[in-house]
């Protein structure tokens, strides 16, 4: 006999299938969901998730959250689990937690949030304040233990990393890590990767922003760290560059029939990448993003062709 939770989950999946365009539904049916293992544990995560910065953050601060509910429903109903947020993303973290409870998805989501209470003036953090921020995040998101907390932007690692380590040792956090989306901080990120017992890093990577693939991603593989990729569209940069351009016909051979899938499948083809978390407040865009997690990925020869296409585009 089905439990109420199982019934609701199955009903949601059926509803999602009915809402999908027929051609996309057929693609999902015949293709596999691409997942990657977290090196430290072997737990698999879908290659595409959801970020909550940018437009998601803007909408989270408004009175109408219906589009965000649609985005989160689209994520979980189509196989996605990873949701990346942060206390610094305005109301995003709180709103994500509330919507997840409303749709019965709190325990189905792989929650990735962050901690950063470092002063903008001094760069220093207070351990007690970091602990308070983590406690608020745990309360907002409601999953026990929370999946991942990273020290945001490498901020005062000497103070904040021991705090998240204590929460992990207490069984309140499963994984810990740190993030950086600035190439000027890659040297500091490398030092952190070698100096702290972390499980994850978060870093920027895109088809027109490939520097992390030269330094950071190979090191993550060598050290056995999972990788969350941020800003795979260069925020809005790539969209500006392809405005008015048509996706190459040969890209449909591996399922990239939209620019969104083209950009995401390029990133997903990098073997060090565990999950990509593009932010969106549009359910249709979320559906297109999660579509990149199905089917095939480009091989090395095709990746070079993809780079040439993008490199030839006008700069934004």
Structural features, described:
The protein has helices at residues 4-19, 22-30, 54-60, 66-77, 92-102, 127-141, 157-169, 186-195, 216-223, 237-241, 259-268, 283-291, 300-311, and strands at 35-37, 44-46, 50-51, 82-84, 110-115, 146-151, 173-180, 200-204, 226-230, 275-276. It has 316 residues and is of the alpha/beta class. The protein has a single domain (43-311), classed as NADP-dependent oxidoreductase domain (TIM Barrel, Alpha-Beta Barrel). α4 (66-77) runs parallel beside α12. The protein is globular and about 55 Å long. Mean pLDDT is 92; it is low at 1-14 and 22-27.
Strand content: 5-15%
Order of helices and strands: HHEEEHHEHEHEHEHEHEHHEHH
Largest sheet: 8 strands, parallel
Distance between the termini: 56 Å
Provide the low-confidence segments as ranges: 1-14, 22-27
Radius of gyration: 19 Å
The average pLDDT is 92
- Global outline: globular
């Amino acid at each position: 006999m089905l439990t109420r939770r199982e019934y609701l989950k199955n009903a949601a999946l059926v509803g999602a299938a009915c809402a999908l365009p027929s051609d996309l539904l057929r693609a999902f049916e015949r293709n596999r969901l691409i997942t990657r293992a977290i090196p430290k544990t072997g737990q698999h995560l879908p290659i595409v998730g959801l970020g909550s910065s940018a437009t998601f953050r803007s909408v989270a601060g408004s009175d109408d959250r219906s589009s965000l509910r649609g985005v989160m429903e689209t994520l979980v109903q189509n196989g996605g689990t990873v949701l990346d947020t942060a206390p610094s993303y305005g109301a995003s973290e709180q709103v994500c937690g509330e919507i997840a409870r409303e749709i019965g998805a709190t325990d189905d989501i792989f929650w990735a949030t962050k901690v950063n209470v470092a002063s903008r003036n001094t760069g220093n953090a207070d351990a007690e304040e970091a602990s308070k921020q983590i406690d608020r995040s745990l309360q907002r998101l409601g999953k026990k233990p929370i999946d991942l907390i990273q020290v945001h932007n490498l901020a005062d690692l000497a103070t904040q990393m021991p705090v998240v380590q204590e929460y992990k040792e207490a069984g309140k956090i499963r994984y810990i890590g740190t993030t950086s989306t600035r190439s000027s901080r890659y040297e500091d990120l490398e030092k952190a990767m070698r100096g702290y017992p972390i499980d994850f890093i978060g870093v920027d990577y895109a088809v027109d922003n490939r520097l992390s693939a030269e330094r950071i991603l190979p090191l993550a593989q060598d050290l056995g760290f999972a990788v969350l990729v941020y800003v795979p569209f260069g925020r809005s940069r790539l969209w500006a560059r392809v405005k008015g351009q048509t996706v190459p016909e040969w890209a449909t051979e591996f399922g990239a029939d939209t620019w969104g899938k083209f950009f995401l499948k390029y990133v997903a083809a990098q073997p060090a990448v565990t999950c990509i978390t593009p932010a969106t407040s549009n359910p249709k865009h979320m559906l297109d993003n999660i579509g990149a997690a199905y089917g095939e990925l480009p091989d090395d020869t095709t990746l070079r062709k993809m780079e040439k296409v993008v490199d030839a585009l006008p700069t934004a």
